[in-house]
Amino acid sequence: MEKLSIDIILAKIEKEECFSAVHNDYGFTLKIESYVPYVCAAIHDGHQFRKSLWDNCLHTEYERWYEEDPETKNMIASHPIVIAGCDSRFEYDLNRSPENAIFETAWGKKLWKTPLQEEEKRVSLSKHANFYKVVDALIHKLESKFGASIVYDMHSYNWKRWDRVVPTWNLGTSNLNNERYGALIESWRKRLSQINLPNNIQSSAKINDTFYGNGYFLKYISSNFKNTLVLATEIAKIYCDEYEQIIFPEVVASVEEQLQIQIKQHAECVFEIDSIE
After folding, report:
1. Which residues contact 277 (CB under 8 A, 6 or more apart)?
2. Does residue 30 register a pLDDT over 60?
3. How many angstroms from the chain centroid is the CA of residue 9?
4. Contact 102/116 with Cβ under 8 angstroms?
5. In 3-state terms, what secondary structure has residue 241?
6. Among 58, 145, 165, 253, which residue's CB has the most CB atoms within a 10 Å radius?
7. How many separate domains does the chain show?
8. The domain spanning residue 123 has which CATH number?
9. In angstroms, rounded to a whole number, what is the distance separating the alpha carbons of residues 215 and 97?
10. What pLDDT shows up at residue 272?
11. CA trace torsion 216, 91, 255, 154 (10° rounding)
């Protein structure tokens, strides 16, 4: 993996070069093994939290981890194009607009002892902006090359906090053109429901049952690119103990192995039948 500037990353995408890199601000990674009409994203996978913020933060490391999406990058790591956040959403949230990306409170608790200095905000928002420059260039390239593309937007959620039965997988579609993409959404939901998980974990998949696809990442791509479908896909944290902060590697590996097949087949099916047009 190389360490590259924003200009070099953008130039490589424009020239359709393959590479694996971390941006030089260490805010995100991008791997392109080949130019295919689909992208896998794990924008909340990151846990980094820069040291200049530590003493001012009221949330513990565990509280931050609890609201992040650990292991979501590992679940999609085998695919040809993978973009992932490195920083904690508590530093800045890539799934929120620039105006709302820096939290003052997070999940009902004040985040900072004293208000952040403007320079700290500037650093965070610069990282946010660099990420979206690359997203913009990448989707533009794929739409130009293939006419359309799909983004598998991977997230996770804390299922034990719910007081009812919730699905293993949830697709958020409230900001999509469901009339246009309904068949593709349903075929993805069906594939997720058929995933077999270890440890007798049941696999179910629903649409807009727990979350609704209101993230900025989906909205940004959907509003700027007319032929790209973003599938906001949430897995319940059945792959860890969300209270004890323990990862179950056998479950992560199983999810990765099956998504390696399901994502590829779903994307191939879409473009074989040309149904995204």
Report:
1. 147, 148, 227
2. yes
3. 19
4. yes
5. strand
6. 253
7. 1
8. 3.40.630.40
9. 9
10. 65
11. 10
Instruction: Tally the C-alpha atoms within 13 A of residue 172's C-alpha that lie toward its C-beta.
Output: 21
What are 95's two structure tokens?
A: 């799934």
Domain extent at residue 143: 2-273
What Å distances lie between residue 197 and 153, 166, 203, 252, CA to CA?
A: 20, 16, 7, 9
The encoded tokens of residue 88 equal 């904690």
Quote the DSSP letter at residue 43.
T
For the chain, how big is the Rg over CA atoms in Å?
A: 18
* pLDDT value, residue 276: 46
Q: Is the dihedral of CA 124, 126, 127, 133 positive or negative?
A: positive
Compute the distance between CA of residue 216 and CA of residue 220 in angstroms, rounded to an integer: 6
* Global confidence as pTM: 0.95
| Encoded amino acid at 3, one letter | K
Q: pLDDT by residue (tens digit) across 96-133?
A: 999 999 999 999 999 999 999 999 999 999 999 999 99
Amino acid type, 128: H
Contacts made by residues 32-37, CB under 8 angstroms, sequence distance 24+: 32/80, 32/81, 33/80, 33/81, 34/80, 34/81, 35/80, 35/81, 35/141, 35/142, 35/145, 36/80, 36/81, 36/267, 37/142, 37/145, 37/146, 37/148, 37/149, 37/150, 37/267, 37/271
